[in-house]
Design goal:
mainly alpha; Four Helix Bundle (Hemerythrin (Met), subunit A); 8 helices; globular
């Protein structure tokens, strides 16, 4: 039964991702992204990661998506839709990068998924707890990637404000 529910959430996540790519209206694309994030939260709940489930819903599906919708509304997208199509070279580069991404994702499948098991076992969860284990890993082993991700989010926010600012 759990496997069937997982496949339902996974299908909704994939459909939401496809909706993000295919939607012509940016607001519809953002709503598809919200659907994907809610589906991921459901998958976290299936894996007994209640804390990450709650954070996924509150932070990503709530706060960050609200920020994205505000930026979309500030950018005056209707004006940009009326301009001529000038992104021919950009589309070619996008297709090349998408092909490279598919290759990078398929290479591990061809080599076989022979990764080692992680450190979060049932015994560790019972002894330490999920949130303590996660926070210990996040702020010791993965501190640099965590800080890089936060700086990238800050740069994205500053870029969104710069794009939304009206030129005088």
């Amino acid at each position: 039964m759990t496997l069937a529910i997982f496949f339902v959430f996974a299908a909704f996540a994939v459909l939401g991702g496809v909706g993000v790519l295919l939607a012509r209206n940016p607001i519809h694309s953002a709503l598809s992204l919200v659907g994907t994030m809610v589906s991921l939260a459901g998958i976290y709940l299936l894996h007994h990661a209640e804390f990450i489930f709650a954070i996924q819903l509150m932070v990503y599906a709530g706060a960050i998506m609200t920020l994205i919708v505000f930026v979309i509304m500030l950018l005056d997208v209707r004006h940009e839709e009326t301009e001529s199509e000038r992104l021919g070279f950009g589309k070619v580069i996008g297709m090349v990068l998408a092909g490279l991404m598919v290759v990078v994702l398929l290479v591990p499948l061809g080599a076989g998924l022979t990764g080692k098991a992680g450190g979060m076992t049932e015994e560790v969860l019972a002894r330490v707890g999920g949130v303590e284990f996660l926070s210990e890993k996040l702020f010791t082993t993965y501190l640099l990637p965590f800080e890089i991700a936060s700086v990238l989010l800050l740069v994205g926010l500053v870029g969104a404000v710069a794009l939304a600012k009206k030129r005088l």
